[in-house]
Amino acid sequence: MNIFIDTNIFLSFFHYSSEDLGQLKKLIALIRGGRVRLLITKQIIDEFKRNRQKKINDVIKRLIDMKVQVSLPQMAKQYEEYNAIQESQRTCNENRSKLIDKLISDAKGNNLEADSIIQELFSEAEKLPLTDENVAKSRLRIELGNPPGKAGSLGDAINWEILLDSIKEGDDLYIVTEDTDFASPLDASLFNPYLDEEWKELKKSEVIFYKKLSLFFNDHFSEIELTTELEKEQLIAELFNSNSFSMTHSIIAKLRKIPNFSKKQLNDIVIAAISNDQIYWIAIDPEIHSFLESILKGREDEIDPEFLPKILYVINKIKAYGEIPEDL
Fold first, then answer.
1. How far is the C-alpha of 1 from the C-alpha of 280, rounded, in Å?
2. Residue 91, number of CB atoms within 10 A of its CB
3. Which of 35, 107, 108, 147 has a 20 to 30 A CA-CA distance from 184?
4. What single DSSP character describes residue 297?
């Protein structure tokens, strides 16, 4: 499933938005599970870098202006609630100031939670190349007045030309954007009819248009499926970092209950098994040995050739001699 997410969606996580960062975490899990192919361009990354601080600055200004001020009448002073309200105002404004200081500090160091999640997402995405032909076609598109984009701005046109150039004929594309240049002038919830017709003619497939990432998830992935993928990714990450035998046992016990793993998840488990001493040295344990053997059975051709001989050596040596090989 090919999905393209416009810059404005990523930037919304640094502003006021009804969306939650959990949506991006779900997307990472789906990409790693091989169920979604996130497409990204240098244009998107550059736009994000250019506008991130502008979005944050706007939020900071709003927070600074958002002082809590409750006007109370003189006749209320005799009541204890009057002092309680006054104290609440002071506390709220003090905490608002502290929050602003922390936001500014973390924003300068790219240490906001949104920063780490979006950078992780960018690293998982497939970067589409930009060619001189893409730029030339984009300029012509803008000069002719064809969507997407506006006079003097090539960004949307470049992204569209790259997508036309990169998606295989017959493959559908899911676009998530709040940019009105991609929307129908008559109904902003629908895809632009000019672009829709152009895509169908050139790619022989469909563009499915969304204004919010949450709407995409609601239509195509149930909450149960997403939760399962997130749990898999979290458990495998914990397996990499396990620092005790008991922790490894606990993680393996949970992984044993999961019916299937993607190719990437399978390889990640194998890498963890041959690189983390806490797993490697207790692989002789019947439950852990059985788990490793079961997930590999029939899927050996999906394991990276660099790691397959090592994990098979460990499993077979334990099976034959009941011991861990010392010369892995």
1. 36
2. 11
3. 35
4. T
Nearest to 235 by CA among 221, 249, 217: 249
Q: Report the alpha-carbon distance of residue 100 to residue 106 in Å, rounded.
A: 10
Containing 211, the helix (H) or strand (E) segment is none
**CB-side exposure of 169: number of CA atoms within 13 Å?**
4
Tens of pLDDT, residue by residue, the chain (328 residues): 999 999 999 999 999 888 888 888 889 888 887 889 999 999 999 999 999 999 999 999 999 988 878 889 999 999 999 999 999 999 999 999 999 999 999 999 999 999 999 999 999 999 999 999 999 999 999 999 999 988 778 999 999 999 999 999 999 999 999 999 999 999 999 999 999 999 999 999 999 999 999 899 989 887 666 667 777 888 888 888 887 778 888 888 888 888 788 888 899 988 888 876 655 555 567 777 788 888 888 999 999 999 888 888 777 765 554 444 454 4
For the stretch 284-291, contacts whose Cβ atoms lie closer than 8 Å and that sit 24 or more positions apart, written own/partner, are 284/318, 284/322, 284/323, 284/324, 285/249, 287/249, 287/252, 287/253, 287/256, 288/248, 288/249, 288/252, 289/315, 289/318, 289/319, 291/252, 291/255, 291/256
> What gap in Å lies between CA 202 and CA 173, rounded to an integer?
13
CA dist 324 and 280 (Å) reads 8
Question: Exposed e or buried b for every residue in 130-167, given b needs 16+ CB within 10 A?
Answer: beeebeebbeebbeeeebbbeeeebbbbbbbbbbbebb
Q: Whose CA is closest to 156, among 182, 186, 117?
A: 182
Q: Does the domain at residues 2-61+119-219 carry the CATH identifier 3.40.50.970?
A: no
The pair of structure tokens assigned to 320 is 């034959």
Contact 160, 177 (CB under 8 A): no
* Helix, strand or coil, per DSSP, at residue 141: helix
Q: Scanning the structure block, which residue is given the tokens 């309200």?
A: 85
Gyration radius from the chain CA atoms: 26
